[in-house]
Specification:
This protein is α/β, with parallel strands linked by helices and 404 residues long. It folds into 3 domains: 35 residues, no CATH class; 149 residues, NAD(P)-binding Rossmann-like Domain (Rossmann fold); 188 residues, Dihydrodipicolinate Reductase, domain 2 (2-Layer Sandwich), CATH 3.30.360. 28% of the residues lie in helices and 23% in strands. It contains 10 helices and 17 strands. A 6-stranded parallel β-sheet has the order 8-5-4-9-10-11, sandwiched between helices. The chain has a 6-stranded mixed β-sheet with strand order 13-12-14-17-16-15. Strands 1-2-3 form a 3-stranded antiparallel β-sheet. The protein starts with a strand and ends with a helix. The structure holds NADP nicotinamide-adenine-dinucleotide phosphate and 3-amino-D-alanine. The site of 3-amino-D-alanine (2RA) has 9 residues, from helix 5.
Length: 404
Amino acid sequence: MESLPFGIVRSPQPSALSPHVLWRVRPWSVSVRHPCLTLSRPAAAATSSSRQMAPSTQPGQPMSSTSRYSIAIVGATGAVGEALLAILAERSFPVGELVPLASARSAGARVTFGDRELTVRDVASHDFDGVDIAFFSAGAAVSREHVPRAAAAGAVVIDNTSEFRYQDDVPLVVAEVNPQALAQYEKRGIVANPNCSTMQMLVALAPIHRAVGIERINVATYQSVSGAGRSGMDELGRQTAALLNFQEAEPKKFTAQIAFNLIPQIDDFQDNGYTREEMKMVWETRKILEDERIGVNATAVRVPVFHGHAEAVHVETRDAITAVRARELLEKAPGVVVVDERRPGGWPTPVTHAAGNDGVFVGRIREDLSHPRGLDLWVVSDNIRKGAALNAVQLAELLVRSHL
Ligand code: NAP
Ligand code: 2RA
């Protein structure tokens, strides 16, 4: 049995459907939870620097705090929850007790935290009394119901869903961009984690905005199926296997076939013709950069990639900036890894750079031929790590360091 990239295994046994090759899908929801991390693939060009991203602690170094914190993770069996468990352990977050929570469906299941096996409990019957930090990553409806009672019980909630992001008394924080906003968590006991597509874009754009101001952002996203959770990954795997075996690819999770295809709709349509995923980039950019004047025009597209979102970003700045100056700023920016050589392979991709890594990778930096103050960038990052779990853990580190 030969392993191929991204969880597809090729069997030497001929198949009735395909006389030469039998393609099967590894059951990643069971045994390969994060395919990019477990399959052997060439080390990404990025690896040496991409893991050294955090503004608050260096990966692998223990945090200096002597206190231990009681942690709850709601959605611990999901794609983001699993990454939260892994990243808390990797970064030696000072965890005392850790309670993994999910729905009644998963109660009793086991998850791994470092060298510990923990039993998942049902959030509906969980009492948050005594929890210091609660990570919520189980969808907006679950947050709507359970975040207020977790906060009322005294936990500081770091919410990965869209439920509280647009509320004025809840800070929306990217660790490298607006850490100062975190102090506002005291108003409600809640901090919101931005959406993955906004997160990586703003890590890359904040240094340019600080230097010369950004007037307008025009962005097209190329978003991996893991952005839709485990069921998104399952659907791409299942459809790919089916099509390679000359079978039908029936869409269930997505609104059209995703294998070997692109879908120009993520989330629901709004009255203005944009999708909610696109409008999140408008609302969140303005809130995080504290600048209501910035124009954001987004087109969000789902692509048949397992891990890592990519974005073609075109900005119009207030003052002109050269590509050389922008590259200098980005090379010094926390969280950013510049991969920008004008040769084949001199740019980042989801597979070779982002998947399983912490950085926001920026390449194809160039001045826009069609606009006197235009700049183009290609921005790639792991949507589950920096786009969700890593930023949430960075916020917890900042809380512990300065607030708790
Ligand atoms: P996922 O893989 O589908 O996992 C969903 C998790 O939520 C599972 O642990 C599931 O537990 C739990 N859950 C579902 N319904 C529940 C209920 N009624 N009560 C308690 N727990 C329930 O999804 P995901 O990708 O991890 O995303 C989780 C959240 O993070 C979503 O709000 C998503 O928008 C947000 N987010 C995701 C990304 C990304 O790139 N994936 C990025 C940013 C933000 P069971 O095992 O019990 O079903
Ligand atoms: C997606 N941005 O990629 C979403 C995940 N929150 O679907």
